[in-house]
Amino acid sequence: MALKGVSFTAPTAHVVGVLGENGAGKSTLVKILAGAIRRDAGRIAVGDVPLQAGSPREALRAGVALVPQELAYLPSLSVAENILLGRLPRRNGVVSRRGMMRKARHFADRVGLRVSLDRPMSHLSLADAQLVEIAKGIARNARVLLLDEPTAALSQQDSDRLFATVAALAGENVTVLCISHRLDEVLEHTDSCVVLRDGRVALDSPTSEVTKRDLVGSMLGSRKTTTFQRARSVRTERAVIELQGTSHTDTNGLRDASFHVRGGEIVGLFSVRGGGQEAALETVTGLRPHQRGRLLVDGQDVGAIRNVREARKRGIVGVPPDRKRGGLILSGSVVHNAALPQLGKLARTGIMRPSRERAVLEGIVTDFALKFRSPVQPIGHLSGGNQQKVLVGSRIAVGHRLIVLHEPTRGVDVGARREIHQRLSVLASSGSAVLFASTDVEEAVELADRLYILRDGTVIGELAGDEKTPARALSLASGDPL
């Protein structure tokens, strides 16, 4: 998302919450501030010193440090080495261990980090790893700290601990910009808030002067959600898949979650990041077996689905959230990627017949208006929307009874999004069951017949009919109802 004339001021020693839907421009803003991408126009200043368009090194030199959502530490190195990365104290050209430990402890204490400095980063909890990254920024004399979704995968206790650190840093004249989807934590822990919508500032206000309703309204604007008017087969009475009080014993899993999907309907899961929708889909598709509760397929308790192969045997196929990492071979041809989920089925005696691959691709072309230059061109050369069509279409072509999609239209334009939604509608009309999860509230409301809202791993509400609105979904997912 390109930014369009974004202007706001973050006062010294303030905590500023930055909110907006997916695609609103938050990531672009952070990347510009951190020097990862160049701005085309405008002025940025840290204090009275202009920040030149440059690189992350230039941003760090100006006192701007980023703690990304996907932490960038070196797992094999110790906590102390990561805190002082690139700034290790030396004597006669040799790293001074005593000096390193003394300096690292100073910065660890400033952020409330209570772990052994000798401990490898790979052994730390996510909450402690985030504190290490914050300590690293402070060690580089950061005057402005950028936190991208810092609590997305943290428990409430760890989130409270993180914001205690943030408040302490603000007391030391550090300005903190915190990107978050969680409205309640923004209202509780920030001094001011900025809402981005479609690349522009939709709200810039002291936090004490806004309500949750104000934030939701600014995020959504005047846009209305359109719904499909589609013919449907009669939905089956018995659920194709059902979770009853399902839980994981590890962190960031489900907590006594229950929901079901019948044939002939599209069911959505919506939560803010870290709310449990990913764990729910992984449970159904065999990527994360549950430890407690029941999982029923066609009314039969199947225990836990242990792997993807078992899920497919039970008629469940999943579409991964990241096509570049877990869904497509970008260097492979369009036709090969189209047939990828069915290679074992389509090949005879270990040999793939090109005609079989082409038949699968032709079906996707028909269903999705797929555009490409040649069936043998690398799929990485296609637009993101066409790549996503191949990803979704190739899984639908497998022909299972339940298709499970995580972020079904991530990174695609409006046209491709509409075509994917329409194809899923047709699939449901034929009697198949569709389960999806999206962090895009408008997509969740538009596509789902019934929408389950999750928070902290628990299903806390179900929306359908006139109650299924973006404002209602956001308010339930982020905290207390409006």
Automatic annotation (TrEMBL):
UniProt KW Cell cycle keyword:
no
- Record-linked Gene3D superfamilies: P-loop containing nucleotide triphosphate hydrolases (3.40.50.300)
Q: Which SMART domains match?
A: AAA
What are the UniProt keywords, alphabetically?
ATP-binding, Nucleotide-binding
Q: Which GO terms describe its molecular function?
A: ATP binding
- Pfam families under this entry? ABC_tran (PF00005)
Q: Does the keyword Nucleotide-binding apply?
A: yes
Where does the ABC transporter domain lie? 1-223, 234-481
Recorded hits in InterPro entries, A to Z, give: AAA+_ATPase, ABC_carbohydrate_import_ATPase, ABC_transporter-like_ATP-bd, P-loop_NTPase
Q: Which PANTHER family match?
A: AUTOINDUCER 2 IMPORT ATP-BINDING PROTEIN LSRA (PTHR43790:SF2), CARBOHYDRATE TRANSPORT ATP-BINDING PROTEIN MG119-RELATED (PTHR43790)
Q: Write out the similarity annotation.
A: Belongs to the ABC transporter superfamily. AI-2 autoinducer porter (TC 3.A.1.2.8) family.
Q: Kindly provide the name given to this protein in its UniProt entry.
A: Sugar ABC transporter ATP-binding protein
